Amino acid sequence: MTISTRSEEDARLREAMSLLAATLESTADGILVVSGDGRISSVNNQFLSMWGVPRALVDTGDDEAVMGFVLGQLSDPQAFLAKVTALYADPEAESHDVLSFRDGRTFERYSRPQKVGDRVAGRVWSFRDVSQARRDQERITQAMADLAAQAGQLRSLAFNDPLTGLSNRQLFNDQLAHALAGPCGTAVDVLLLDLDDFKEVNDIHGHHAGDQMLIEVGRRLRACVRPSDVVARLGGDEFVVLMVGSLDADAAAARIVESLKEPLWVDGSMLRPSLSLGLASISADAYDASELLRRADIAMYAAKAAGKNRYLRFQPEMMTALLERADLEAGLRAAVERGEITVHYQPIVASRLGRVVKVEALARWERNGVLVPPQQFIPAAERSGLVVEIGTEVLLRGCTELQPWLAADPARSLAVNVSGVQLQQGNVPELLLSTAAACGVDPRQLVVEVTESVFFDDDCQVHRQLVELRGAGVRVALDDFGTGYSSLGRLQDLPVDTLKIDKSFVQMIRTGTEHLPILNCMISMAHGLGLTVTAEGVETLQQARYLVERGCDSLQGYMLSTPQPAANLPAALALAEAAAAALRGDTAARSSPLL
Ligand code: C2E
Ligand code: MG
Ligand code: MG
Q1: How far apart are the C-alpha atoms of 496 and 475, rounded to whole Å?
Q2: How far, in Å, CA of 65 to CA of 88, rounded?
Q3: Between residues 531 and 150, which one has the greater pLDDT?
């Protein structure tokens, strides 16, 4: 080789070396080159700064010390050492892994042979600091996990009823739609149910007890059906069960009704839940969700109307009952608008005097020449709110028609029935007092009859109005006493003057010789509280005699007179007083001191 070619070679070599050095220094990776005999032949600055190895230490050529420096920083130096040993045993091998540092950093490590032609001359190690990328990745993973957890919570809020943990309406609707889109011929049954008289549980025992009852009902429903069946709370006290592919939905419905007969205890009180359940199944003429639900609803309504605490399967005839109900309400509305609600009056006789001292005004509705029983149209009026107009009309007619009779004797009075719906409006005192004033009736000659159920709502509206009325001289009678959730214990807290014993108790008197402690108890308890007692539904002489002998203050019933229109009232009053006189004579003959 000539001098000039050698210097050309040297120049090319220097250029290649400088290119290599520049390349090594410009990379972000830390690079370490180890010769075939295992000695460090080169490192770049990045390697030194990443590992924190002093340049001077490398320059000493003490590779053991450098290795010690490196190992001291790793979380698992033994594993790294094992890898290094394995690689030196296999000079051709390439490998890659991740190194964790004690201080939390993470490096990616690559190692490949350094070859000159086909010969392995050494090994190149490169390290990349991926700590930030690793942290970012971990943050992303954590954020994804958080999002998934939140989505889960949102999903459960969106699809579960928070009180009972059952599915909610949304989920039920989705599942029903899914079931109806399933294979043809699969049974799909909807069991719609509503607790009977749940409002009273809430009103009497409080909302906590009501909530506990709903939770327990949810539990029992779940226990009555298969795990695959959907049990949802639709809201309030309404639940629904969706059964897909069930062989006997009727049996499940019967089980549900039966399971609620077991009482439950809440805060020391025993509650007896009961429910009305309507069952509807997919069929050729009911194959969409709204029709199935409509049918289940109609069947549930029919179960309530049939006496509650039962289940009924939808029958087409049930539609008729529903139409009748709608027709009744429409007819009643028209009658109210046309002023066709009239009033009949039933005399009430004071036992001691044998005279009619009071009459009760009772609403009457004649439809197509037939009187509709108030037991039918008053509930419809309460449902639709029409009872407010009816009550106002009865009061106005009563005050107008009876004004002369009342004016003739201040001891006489007129009783009107006031529904809880009217009291909810909050203006009963104004209505009564202004009507009385407009008709020239002394408010002290008015009696309002309310049933115990008006006191269930523990809002003080009802109390306030009754107290205000009593302040103006109006008296308050507790109607139908003994039915519903009556309680003799609560009587002393209620703003009432008179107790009207319900006719169902009076009917217990058949011969007049029986022992009926409940009646004695009601009368003496009321007297003990300073209330007067009226017996309703007195139909026979024996009943009248029995009641009078036990101190009942007034009697009302067919034995004295049926309710009559104002035009017939003089005759009705005379007949009632004649009947009372007969009773007086009869009782006098039996030497009662009362008449
Ligand atoms: P109520 O206030 O307890 O009225 C007494 C009911 O017993 C009346 O029924 C009356 O006709 C009936 N009755 C009276 N004596 C006898 C008897 O000896 N035997 C039998 N079996 N029944 C007797 P009616 O007129 O059918 O009214 C039923 C219910 O409808 C009333 O019961 C009352 O709760 C309600 N009602 C009637 N008119 C009105 C009204 O104007 N407003 C409101 N809110 N309710 C009314
Ligand atoms: Mg009454
Ligand atoms: Mg009554």
Answers
A1: 7
A2: 18
A3: 531
Q: What is the pLDDT of residue 306?
A: 86
Burial tier of 118 (Cβ tally within 10 Å: 0-12, 13-18, 19+): exposed
Q: Closest Cα to atom 46, ligand 1: which residue? A: 417
Ligand 2 centroid–CA 220 distance in Å is 40
- Span 383-410, average pLDDT: 97
Q: Which atom of ligand 1 is nearest to the CA of 382?
A: 44
164 vs 213: CA distance, rounded Å: 10
- Closest to 577 measured CA to CA, from 261, 350, 286: 350
Q: Would you give the distance in Å from CA 574 to the centre of its chain?
A: 55
Q: Is residue 458 scored above 70 in pLDDT?
A: no
pLDDT at 116: 86
List b or e across 539-576, with b for residues whose CB sees 16 or more CB atoms inside 10 angstroms: ebebbbbbbbbbebbbbbbebbbebbebeebeebbebb
Give the end-to-end CA distance of the chain in Å, rounded to a whole number.
157
pLDDT at 595: 40
> Please, which residues have CB within 8 angstroms of residue 219's CB and are 6 or more apart in sequence?
164
Domains and CATH numbers, the chain: 3-133 (3.30.450.20), 160-314 (3.30.70.270), 340-591 (3.20.20.450)
Among 360, 390, 417, 543, residue to substitute to test ligand 1 (most atoms within 8 Å of Cβ):
417
Q: Which residue has the tokens 């007129």?
A: 414
When pLDDT is cut at 50, 70 and 90, the band that residue 1 belongs to is low
| Ligand 1, pocket-test mutation among 362, 372, 384, most atoms within 8 A of CB | 362
Do the Cβ atoms of 256 and 277 come closer than 8 Å?
Answer: yes
Query: How does 516-531 read in b/e, with b if 16+ C-beta sit within 10 Å?
Result: eeebeebbebbeeeeb
Residues 139, 255: contact at Cβ < 8 Å? no
